[in-house]
Amino acid sequence: MTHRSPASRTLKVDALARVEGEGAMYIEVRDGRLHDVQLRIYEPPRFFEAFLRGRRYTEPPDITARICGICPVAYQMSACLAIEDACGVTIDGPLHDLRRLLYCGEWIESHTLHLYLLHAPDFLGYSNAIDLAADHRDLVTAGLDLKKVGNEILEVVGGRAIHPVNVKVGGFYRVPTRKDLAPLAERLRGALDTAMNTVAWVAGFDFPEVGHELELAALCHPDEYTMMGGRFRSTRGLDIAADEFTDHVIENQVEHSTALHAHLLERGEYLVGPMARFALSHALLGPEALAAASDAGLEPGERNPFRSIIVRAVEIVQACSEALRIIENYERPDAPAVEVVPRAGVGFGWTEAPRGMLWHRYELDAEGTIVDALIVPPTSQNQPAIEHDLYHFVEGHLDLDDIELGLRCEQTIRNYDPCISCATHFLDVTVSRT
Amino acid sequence: MTPASTELAQERPRVAVWKFSSCDGCQLTLLDCEDELLTVAERVELAYFLEAGAVGDGGKGLYDLSLVEGSITTPGDLDRIQDVRRRSTRLVTIGACASAGGIQALRNFTEVEQFLGIVYAQPQFISTLEESTAISDHVEVDFELRGCPIDKNQLLEVIAAFTNGRPPAIPGHSVCVECKLRGNVCVTVAQGVPCLGPVTHAGCGALCPTYHRGCYGCFGPSETANVAGVAVELRRHGMDEHEIELAMHTFNTWSPELRDYPPSAPTPTGEQP
């Protein structure tokens, strides 16, 4: 990295820290004007869609979980919904609630990891959470304990926190008893307090005055803050079912990235994730999360990406209270799973991963062998929007020297909690000024 | 390179975490040690750990212990792993990708161009190797920690052992032993559920059988695994040859014990080889 801010320069950040995966950033300035910004994802391709062909219809929950160690449940749930759709099965009632409980665990774990360990240090002037802990040990300890409650849900319901073993097409291998879940309820009551305090804490950070005009899109359901299924709606009127997704969204390959770039047809970049969910469904939040959002001064029209940290905190409150509600009303299902008999056909499934909507499509033959698989993860949908945001940020801050500009760009990227191993990863920044 | 003698003479051992082709789950396991993370960070210097924001010397220093996640899949990886090895007194691989090539090693059984064509419209932009391979295929490895993902208590044991100059206490026996230790009723014997436990490396605490499911082998082969023998058992409990083949070829497909399954001359069914 160079240390100047001349009229023409190239800024290159070679390895982005505090993001999940591998990527780099390239900024080119010519004669004092911004010429190009590229987010380069160099996570090596792993070819999941290719080697899923020929596998059994029962395998995607275990196999696709391995796309991302940070949000394996999202992959498992989207895969299950898509395969069940292909086979004409709908899971509802207590098995659906148990899936939702598992997903709450992942939201709590993933959001708290990002908020406390990766994102908050940016606002407090620390380079990482270990340094933050040296000065504010209690704060980081509270965050780690909150994160741990998420992992405890994943362990009790799923068997383990990373790549849970208990999820199958049709439900679970073993369902917990009320007694198994009781200790979680106790822990969640404490976690809910910590989460409420977290909202108040992050709402007090200093935020730069920025905003964007991007279209926000998320899954919507008439009577719940959506985690699974529903329709994909946007702030500008998009309203589609899962089988219509590829009619409206196109994925392009760009030379600088192993992650494909998604755009809305004839509309352009769009953004998925917590800000989108909050914008579209905030009225369906539980009373605790609504109160926390209101106290934090968060409005559905919020468009400052730096304030996404508050939205994530509100969603931690939501996941804690929702998990608690599910446990309190839990009746153990009669059978751990519904039988899913394969048939020839195509199925679609989508759910809200912590960082945004994740879409799966499978084509099966009559014996249940996978003929074709297609997966669109949240980061490939967000990457064009992140580049768009970076472009505007850099354009307004060309006076900064390369080091400061690089740091601020990394913060801009972290606002989106990109999971680059899922887009398939991040950061290296290059600024070229010529 | 930074002056080795002065850096390594410091009190706390320097630990680095490196990523190659992987899902990030194994390095996340370190951040998932919620109760131990801050203590670990006091006892050792997390000198380079990008996912946690520890940029330190940018990976250009020398390290007492390197934890390596991921498999080797790109031309750039070939040079980078050599560099990591030169900077590391001890090098431990964490997880199935680094120890056996991972699920992405399923490409090794086909032409990678075919896979490229399925996923990417313009394969010429993508730089990738024909095969996904384990770290030990390229450099000397001091210890391989198994699992997809690794177990957090085993990770803490490995860090403690290598930073204190003792061998790690990680047993090489099979999942069957863990079921016995846990008091599980055998899912194969009692319920007829096919299970890879007899040939799978211990470490998970027999999770799948505890959840009434047959082990699917995510920790890879145990020491002296009799793969042909367990295939006979799987067949006896209702799996056909194709299903057995799929079961052997998942997260540890390129491990030496599994990559040649099925053997070209199949063993007679019903007979223990």
In a few lines, what is going on in this structure?
The complex is a heterodimer of chains A (434) and B (273). Chain A has 434 residues and is of the alpha+beta class.
Explained architecture:
The complex is a heterodimer of chains A (434) and B (273). In chain A, 43% of the residues lie in helices and 18% in strands. Chain A has helices spanning 48-51, 60-65, 72-86, 93-124, 129-135, 137-158, 178-203, 245-248, 274-281, 287-295, 308-328, 378-396, 402-414, and strands spanning 9-14, 23-30, 33-41, 167-168, 171-172, 215-220, 231-234, 239-240, 249-252, 261-264, 270-271, 345-353, 356-364, 370-376, 428-433. The longest helix of chain A is centred in the N-terminal third of the chain and has 32 residues, at 93-124. Chain B is an alpha/beta fold. Helix content of chain B is 34%, strand content 10%. Chain B is built from 12 helices and 5 strands. The model of chain B is unreliable at 1-9 (pLDDT under 50). Chains A and B meet through helix 1, helix 4, helix 5 and helix 6 of A and helix 2, helix 3, helix 6 and helix 10 of B.
Attribute tags:
heterodimer; A: 434 residues; alpha+beta; Cytochrome-c3 Hydrogenase, chain B; 2 domains; 4-stranded mixed β-sheet; 13 helices; B: 273 residues; alpha/beta; 5-stranded parallel β-sheet; 12 helices; 34% helix
